[in-house]
Structure formats: structure tokens, C-alpha cells
Amino acid sequence: MIIFRLLLQLVVLLGALLVHPGEASTYQTFANNHIAFPIDPSGYCDLMMRRKGLNQVRCKPINNFIYAPPSLIIAVCQGAGTHYEKNLFDSRRIFSVIHCTNTGRFPNCNYRGRAMIQRVRLGCVQRMPVHLAQLL
């Protein structure tokens, strides 16, 4: 319950931040699309894609969820990552990632999940992640 309250406060606080000009994404969008913690991995992809509203207009072909506390993911942009180029940073630590692939047709989206251990490359704006650029 404490984690939920802290996450809610973080989302509200981050929602107030302005996005760097030219960036279409925000941390809140990034968090919705790619952070899932904690949740039971069984039936994970279908549940998370529905819960986060990522397949309302079409079946998104693929999506990756980072299964970690948001603080560890944010840290990649705040010194715990290695600068790659422009606003991209590579994580030094590995993360549990769930790779979801659609096997259905809209409106009956059906996702198959595969658990992986990967480093991630994040797009960062104002020291906050706004884009999951790549799995490394």
C-alpha cells in the first residue's frame, strides 16, 4: 500500500513537469507503456495491455514491460546509466523484461509473453525516462 501511494504521488508530481520541446513522450506515458511493478506474471501480457489501454484502437504488435520498481528505472537517467548518444542512456544493471507479442486480430488482441533479463536503452528528458528505445 505504501508503494502504491508513493507511485501515485510520483505520477502526480511528474505529470506537472513540462516536456522538453520536440519530445512527444512524457515520463507518465513511458511509465504507462513500459513499467509494471509489482504484478503476477501469469497471463501478464493480455492483462497489462488491457489494463494500460494499449490496444484500444488496434492490436499493438509488440510491447515490452520492465518489471522493476520505477526508482531503479528512473535512476538510469539520473547517473546509474551510461550515456550512449543524444538523449539515450544504457542501463548498467540488468532488468527483468516481459516481451509481449500480439497473436490475435483487433478487436480480439491476444498476447504471448516471454520473460527476459536485459539491459535497456532509454530516451531521457530532464533526467526522466520518456522512451524505451531498445533492449540490449
Automatic annotation (TrEMBL):
Q: What is one Gene Ontology biological process annotated in the Swiss-Prot or TrEMBL record? A: defense response to Gram-positive bacterium
The Ribonuclease A-domain domain sits at 23-136
Statement: the UniProt record of this protein carries the keyword Ribonucleoprotein: no
Which GO molecular function annotations are given, in alphabetical order?
A: nucleic acid binding; RNA nuclease activity
Please verify whether the record's keywords include Signal.
yes
* Residues spanning the signal sequence: 1-24
Q: Which family does it belong to?
A: Belongs to the pancreatic ribonuclease family.
A single GO CC term for this protein reads: extracellular region
SUPFAM superfamilies reported in the protein's UniProt record: RNase A-like
Q: Which organism is it from?
A: Pseudonaja textilis (Eastern brown snake)
Q: Which UniProt keywords apply?
A: Disulfide bond, Secreted, Signal
Q: Which domain of life is it from?
A: Eukaryota
SMART domains registered for this protein in UniProt: RNAse_Pc (SM00092)
Task: Kindly provide the name given to this protein in its UniProt entry.
Answer: Ribonuclease A-domain domain-containing protein
Q: Which Pfam families match?
A: RnaseA (PF00074)
Q: Where in the cell is it found?
A: Secreted
